[in-house]
Amino acid sequence: MPQPDMRVGVIGLGALGRPVAELLLKAGYRTAVYDVRSEPVAELAALGATVCGSPAAVAQHSDLIISLVSDAAQTNAVVSGQGGILETLQPGTIFATGSTLGPAPVQRVAREIAAKGGETLDMPISGGIIAAREGTLSLMVGGAPAVLERARPVFKVFARDITHTGDIGSGQAAKLAHQLVFSVNVMALLEGLALGVAGGVAPEVMKNVLKQGLANSTVLQVWHDLGPRWKGMLKSAAPGVPLPNMRKDLHLVLELAQELGVELRIGDNASRVADAGIATGHDHPLI
Q1: 111-136: per-residue pLDDT in tens?
Q2: Which residues are catalytic?
Q3: Short-list 46, 235, 26, 227, CA closest to 129
């Protein structure tokens, strides 16, 4: 199989970044990687990845850079911090941020990259760990259509659904709307299961009832594999502990809603429940 022409960099080798980089390597892409942790870097080096000591080094080896770090602060460090990609970015390089940041942070990053002659794709991701391993992630992509078409062959290696949402920032808006529905779904499922179990229905029987009715959802379908992780995000946490993704995303949802003047009564309550660590059923061992 001929080697693809486009060189790819992956920054952030966590739950999504590592499997994405592995799939790119298996597909024959020359892949440069960077993470603050040495373990995933070493594992990918054994598969043929080019090891880089900074985001700037990744940019030197990449035509397309995929950033999969946790939040806006880390994204800013990747782009414009010491050793950031702006130090070495070549004109025409594409920066695709898969992190959930909110529209304003990714628009700011896009302006910085454009000043260096680069292009940005606002590329938040849905699907989670299982989809990342299987190469079936869903991408919501904001940015110029022509830039997306250049990147699409790479994205197709790890994504099944690639939806162009509009201009830079629209991918973030789409992802936050998705996360609102997803988070409410998780907490509603916990409450429904807890209510059924309290009424004498066995947990697995209650899940089957929900699957057979209009309350069925993708969240319920993958609950066996991902439910424990989602429940863990709803536990009480000490002040100063980094927010788990579900709570972080709900905060971004409410910030965007306030900026746009959209009232989210259910979303506001869901965020309060998540922040208080009082989601019904989150600590039930069988639900």
Answers
A1: 999 999 999 999 999 998 899 999 99
A2: 175
A3: 227
